Amino acid sequence: MKLHFTTLLFLLTNLSFGQVTNVKSGAWSDQAMWSNNIIPTNTTNIILNYDIHIDINASCKSLNANGHRVTVDVGNTFDVAGVAAPVANFTFAGPFTVPATVTFTNTSTHATSYLWNFGDTASGVNNTSTAVNPTHLYKTLAPYLTNTIVKLTATGPGGIAVDSQYIGLSCVPQIVEVGPTIDTPTVWDQCHIYHCKYYVSVNAPLTIEGATVTFDAQKGMIVQGGGKLISRNAVFTSSAGAKKYGDWANISFGTSSGNSITGGAIQYAGYASLNHERALNMGSGINNTVTKVIFEYNSGTLNQTTATLDMSRCPQSSIAKQNLFFSNSGHPVLIGIATDFDNSNEFSFNQSNAIYVDCVDIDQALTLTWTNKQVPYVLGGWSGNSWAFDPGKILVLGDGVVLKFARYTNPGFTLFVPQGTSQIQNYNGLGVVFTSYEDDSFLGDSNGDGPSTGTAGFWEGIETTGPVWYHWLNIYFAAH
Q1: Phi-psi region for residue 367, left (φ > 0), alpha (ψ -120 to 50) or beta?
Q2: In the chain, what's the furthest Cα-to-Cα distance?
Q3: Three-class DSSP category at 235
Q4: What are 148-179's pLDDT values in tens digits?
Q5: Which of the pair, 447 or 372, is modelled with greater confidence?
Q6: Where does residue 332 rank: exposed (0-12), middle (13-18), buried (19+ CB within 10 A)?
């Protein structure tokens, strides 16, 4: 006897299998097993993704399927008409330079309805379509992305399938002349080059998505008032044809808070004559961040007042991490004694590779942690030549950290810890060194003067109450 059942009687969800023959010994139940070891979750409601032929080789109980009672005798066979699962797929054709109308060809199988998402939220209701073979107009690029994800959802009697593909779009950037102020919320996109011929005052939120921003000589940008700068993958550079160190001034956060620069590059900044020998001044506001930025070919000086990245007045909530400082002149970084400088930042081929520390112009953090052992920390300040720890304030040093001491006035620099060694934790850690700014034997040339060795008495030393001067074995070239 041969029985033919339609898919209305057998519905098996979430399984996709190939040829199946034979039911193993046992009754129809939740434990009944197919010969390829797939266990139906409910043998009275089975969706089959393929037409299959089943041989019954053992006694079977009556099978209840959608209210119909069916009995299959031992040794008889029956065919089940399965439903093929849909397969979603499509191709597409350009042009791909925006504005661009892209044509999509649907090559899906076993599907009866379709839903397209073109990955273009800027197009509003036109971002989706239920057409079989639609077209879509991309007026501009998605924010800071050159690849837009298009998703096709295909639905049929056998289920739902999805195919997602990247559509590579591009644009021909157009030049936009920027005025002296930005007073309303503004977005700059990657399909434009924004030319700044003024020192631009940002007085309202400015969002930059992958754009190129160019500056004329001595020009730059300051965020102030109600302004905020949010930049992702933008390049800030010189407008000159033949670019050189110090072509333009800098970007300054001033006293504003919540600014963020992520990705991209800042290059050829640090115009010297205007005391702008810093490419980015992160200011004194809270929660300012700079992450994954390449600082390259920026101009600076070898005095303690400036650096390519100036964090000297930042509170501890402002963060710089995973940045690369490459081939900058002068000092690459200047921090204050409220700043934990993340050790994920990297330094390469700068005139002087070090993290410079201003010990004067900001209150010390309760607990300050320095762990970077790729380059030394250089301590100094243009308003004084000592760092006196406040009571209860602690500096934690990681193994391998090198502290060097600059000398801008006489006598040299003094580190004063009134509560003793408890205020410099791990002062005797593995590889920890306290030495002169001139000493190139530890982590190389920090003052940019070429090969040099330390001079005895170049800095004063480390002092505690008494006065008592410490004479640790890892102190070099101190006067005491």
Answers
A1: beta
A2: 110
A3: strand
A4: 899 999 999 888 999 999 998 888 889 999 99
A5: 372
A6: buried
DSSP string computed for 347-416: EES-SS--EEEE-SSSPPPSEEEE---SS-EEEE-TT-SEEEPPTT-EEEE-TT-EEEE--SSSS--EEE
The structure tokens listed for 133 are 């073979």
User: pLDDT tens digit string along 258-305?
Assistant: 999 999 999 999 987 655 578 999 999 999 999 999 999 999 877 666
Report the C-alpha dihedral over residues 214, 291, 293, 96, rounded to 10 degrees.
-70
Q: To which H or E segment does residue 162 belong?
A: strand 159-168
Beta-strand pair 100-106/90-93: antiparallel
Which tokens in the block code for residue 151?
Answer: 């998703």
CA distances from 397 to 107, 256, 359, 376, 467 (A): 62, 31, 16, 12, 24
CA atoms within 13 Å, Cβ hemisphere of 104:
29
What is the C-alpha to C-alpha distance for residues 445 and 332, in angstroms, rounded to an integer?
13
CB-CB contact of 353 with 331 (8 Å):
no
List 90's β-bridge partners, or say none: 106
Predicted TM-score (pTM) of this structure: 0.74
Where b means 16+ CB within 10 Å and e means fewer, 337-361 reads bbbbbebebebeebbbbbbbbbbbe
Q: Identity (one letter) of the amino acid at 31?
A: Q
Q: Where are the domains of the chain?
A: 1-83, 90-168, 173-351, 353-480
* CATH number, domain 90-168, options 3.50.50.60, 2.60.40.10, 1.10.10.10, 2.40.50.140: 2.60.40.10
Which among 343, 142, 342 has a CA at the least distance from the CA of 232?
142
